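Record filed below.
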Amino acid sequence: MTDKQRSTLRFAAQLMLGAVVGKVLGFVREILFAKHLGATAAADSFRAAMTAVLLPIAPLQGDLIPSTLVPLFLEWRREGRSVRMASSLCMVFTASATLLAVLIAVYAEVYVDLLLGGFSPEAKAMTAAFTRAMTPAMPASVLIAYFGCVEIALGRSRITSIRPSVQNVSVLIGIGVMSWTGEVIAIAWAFTAGLVLVALYGLAMLWREGEISPRAVRIGSGFEAVAVFFRRGRPLLIQPLAEQGNTLLERMLASALAVGTMASLDYARTITETVYYAVSQPVGYVVLGHEKAIDLRERVRALCSPILHLALPASAFVITFASDITAVVFGRGAFKAEAIASTALAMQGIAIGLWATTLGWILLRMLNADQRNGTAARILACAYAANMIVNVAMYRWLGLFGLGLGEAMRGLVLLGGTAYALGCTGVLLRLIARAAPVTLALAATGLLLQSGVHTPLMRLLAGTGLYGLVLVPWLLFGVPEMAWFRHRVFSRWTKSEPRVTAPGDAATAAWEARTLPNEASGNRAP
């Protein structure tokens, strides 16, 4: 294995480890949050306040930042002016976010009333108080996103890896203070403190290493950097606007439904977004850092086949056992039967398109890596538009399940659009056809378990065991694109060198020759 391959694998492993640790802490946070607040007006107000402070800065911390800033920073670095340009651009972003934070803090009541017209007066007042406490997190969040992209350009992942963990730990501390003092506002202040600490840590690290320096800030360089940044990222501007519009519409619709709707949606996403943060995001970052593939279709097949063969059954598992997952994970304290039912409905709706969302984000990164940012942005905007249409059409009749279906539709449109743009629709359909029979068989067996096993925990354990017994051997021996993994594992066990390629495994061999070391033949990836 070459040094570049080792570095890439190490970088991906660090991102995945940070995502997994952060997600575990996020589970603990949501479990305690559900125990103490459940799906109540206070829980809705906290979620709404998070939306209120993060929504205005979404363009400064969404996909526009990594897709534009990473290659731009590398270009400035080659020209020998990265410190001055990056520091000046950072100052402009921070000043803009700070100005927005001050305005929102001053006009919090008016802002919340416009954003969440369906809330009761008491819930609006509570949301405004939460929002004021969280406004310092706005410039901190922008700084974290900016510093994280600078580190990714340098092949590091410290800030990106620790953000979710520190943020979740800070909220856990806030929940502890709330349970001791009875002051719910403590959670909001703890959330803010965690982000501020990560931002200060990032500034200290990059300043010490000479990549960022307040002394290098120049007003002229700041204007130049902003102009270049938005000129390069102009095709991607439609993405954060569509994302903000979708979030705003969803919160408005949710505020018009029953109390606890927002909290139930977020509890459901705690489960479903695990796949994105553990798989799609780190794999997508690795794809973003690679050059354009020579044979794109074969690379899509080799990369996406194992993920699809796992994600499609995982979606079926979540749909089948949504109520059991919710009851086991959240069903304690203030989280009553009504909250379990509403969260399970949202989870089932989202899970219908979970597999598509997982693959769609990875294929979107392939478009970004191919410098087709405009195409990627248009596809994502269409996906969010489909989400909004389904939300408006379904929320009155299907409630939370309808809002979940909107998110599922977004994933399906995202996958279909990216596959079409990459010219791999046929490859993807064949992979889906291959994975569908096993997925349907597992789903049918899971439904039988629902009627045969009577407690949520036992049903969940039985379902997990069933899926594990089927999926592990199927992935290892039934998926041709896993041949390289089988070869590595078994060659180490048997100490044998010859490589045996499974019949019909030409795609895997071609992709492996370009991207993975081929120890058996003595060849090295170029």
Residues 496-526 have pLDDT under 50 and may be disordered. The longest helix spans residues 3-37. The two ends are 11 Å apart (CA to CA). The CA atoms of residues 139 and 366 lie 30 Å apart.
